[in-house]
Amino acid sequence: GERHAVQRRADRVHAGRVRRGQRRGVRAVAVVGRRADGAAERRDDDGAVAVLYAIVLALKAYPPFLLTAVRMFIAGTLMYAALRWRGVPAPTRAQWPRIAVLAIFMTVLSNALVNKAEETVSSGLVAIGVAAMPLWAGLFSALRGHHPSRGEWLGLVVGFAGVVWLNLGSEVRLSWMGAAALLVAPIAWAFGSIWSRGQDLPE
Asked: What is the CA radius of gyration of the chain?
C-alpha cells in the first residue's frame, strides 16, 4: 500500500511537470506566433535573443517542425484575415506556386531549421548564426548583379560583429546536426529573400 501511494505521488508530480511544460509551451508559441517574420528585420539584437529564448521554451512542449507549423499558421491566418478585411485582393492562381516556393525557403528551410538547431545549440550561437543572414543576402544579391556598396558591406559586417560581441561569454552548446541546421537556415532565408525580388507576388 505504501509503495503504491509513493508511486501515485510520483505520478502526480510528473503529470504536474508535464502540464506546466505544456502551459509554458503554449505561452511561448503565442509569443512567437505574434512575431510576424517580416518583423525580424526590425527587431534589435536583444529582442531577437528573447524570441530565440521563447522558442527554447516552446520546444519543451512541441517538436521543432510542429512548432513552426503552429507558429506560421497563427501568424499567417491573422495576417491574411487582416489584409482581406482591409480590402487587399487574394493572391492570384499564378502567384500561389511562387508563394509555395518562398514558403519552402523562408519557413521550412529557415524557421523550422532554426527551431531544430535550438534543440542542441545554445541560444547565443543561434543568434550569431541567424545574424549572418544579411551577409548571405549581400552575397546572393551580388551574384545577381546587384552589388552592395562598400558602406553597405561595412554596415553588414559591423552589425554581425555586434551580435558576436553581445554574445561573448554566453553558454556554448553545439552538435553536428544543430550546426548543419544553423548553417542552412540563414542561407535559405537569404536566398528566398533575394529570389523573391522581381517575382510576381502579392503586394
From this structure: 20
Amino acid letter for position 19: R
What is the pTM assigned to this prediction? 0.67
- Measure CA 78 to chain center: 18
Tens digit of each residue's pLDDT (9 = 90 or more) over 58-84: 777 778 888 888 888 998 999 999 999
Contact 118, 64 (CB under 8 A): yes
pLDDT tens sequence across 126-172: 888 988 999 999 999 999 888 889 899 999 999 889 888 877 777 77
C-alpha distances (whole Å) from 143 to each of 135, 140, 194 are 13, 5, 10
Evaluate whether 106 touches 193 at the Cβ level (below 8 Å): yes
Task: Answer for the pair 141, 194: CB distance below 8 angstroms, yes or no.
Answer: yes
Dist. CA 87–CA 93, nearest whole Å: 18
Q: By C-alpha distance, which of 89, 51, 88, 85 is closest to 71?
A: 51
